[in-house]
Amino acid sequence: MTLKNTQIFRALCGRLVTLFTVSGVLALPLNAQTKVSGVDAPELTAKASQAIDKGLKYLLTTQKKDGSWDEDGQGGREIGITSLAMMAYMSKAHFPGSGTYGKELDRAKDFLLKYAKARTDGYLGTTMYEHGLATLALSEIWGMTRDAKDDDAIQKVLEKAVDVIVRSQNRGGGWRYQPQSDGGEDTSCTQTVFHALASARQAGIMVPQRTITKVGKFLKRAQNKQDGGFTYTSRGSGNSSFACSAGGIYSAQLAGLRDSEMVASGLRYMKKQFPAVITGGSGHYYYAHYYAIQAMVQAGDDYYMEWYPVIRDALISKQKENGAWIAGRHGGVHSTPMAIIILATPHRYIPIYQR
């Protein structure tokens, strides 16, 4: 299948799934129960759906006139946060030019494209975290816009963004804060960048197999052999981090290592901390669970059916009256989009979040 045909196929599939589900043809009632391994697994409750909509309305109040979102009203981390916010809307089937928030997403898309076109070096944002989030958002809206010219433009900037990622991979297989192949590597940055790379590859952008193979080698070194979790560094020493473990497992699954002992031992590490890591909190709570729920989706129905209801109900209880989820000094700009994406997991509108 050619690159252009891949794009068309992706667009058609995405639009059909969205159309059927929104119209009710394939939609389940909001309190639906899905059969998983012979057991009733709770999915998207009415309260969860209401929380998502409330969160999206909150985000709407923080969008700037140019279509962007940022952390301080002065353009801080605007590329990464705009990309996250777009993904939150897309998780509920709102895409540029379509859905209730189609106009707002058109503005966000235009903002990202304008910025990307101005960056002749292909680097998006100020850190590889931002670059990864922007690459992810662009790859997921590619083929989902109403204007063919936009899709062509997205393809061009996406190819450049992927090239930046491939060229800046370190010898050990990971990435760090800046696009430098000799700049070091850590698990947190690597999982954010590789998540985007996997999405772009799924969308039809060429990604060398050697790049993916090197990521697998990096993850192997970053795993703590004593408890199965993943550490922040690639040496596998020190304490395992829940956030790095969640992202490390998900990255390994995306790298084709779904059935490996690396993933199996990582999941055992996660299970030992359940449900306390959800109900009692964890470091980098929203960031960690943004990856954790996707790792559970990829791990299979038995994992997902146990994990999702607990994080779903925990997030509902954490939402503020104004619709935001608050974490850290920047309020809800990072945590609210991530909470929405987690809650909307049952929808499966975004290809990279599908099993």
Question: How does this model look, in words?
Answer:
This protein has 355 residues and is mainly alpha-helical. It has one domain: Glycosyltransferase (Alpha/alpha barrel). The chain is 57% helix and 2% strand. The chain contains 14 helices and two strands. Strands 1-2 form a two-stranded antiparallel sheet. Strand 1 (33-36) and strand 2 (39-42) form a beta hairpin. Helix 3 runs parallel beside helix 14, helix 5 packs antiparallel against helix 6 (148-167) and helix 9 (242-254) packs parallel to helix 12. The longest helix has 21 residues, at 3-23. The radius of gyration is 19 Å and the shape is globular. The model is unreliable at 1-41 (pLDDT under 50).
CATH top-level class: Mainly Alpha
Fraction of residues in helix: 55-70%
- The overall pLDDT, averaged over residues, is 88
* Major sheet strand order: 1-2
The largest β sheet comes out as: 2 strands, antiparallel
Radius of gyration: 19 Å
* Continuous helix count: 14
Query: How is the CATH topology named?
Result: Glycosyltransferase
CATH architecture: Alpha/alpha barrel
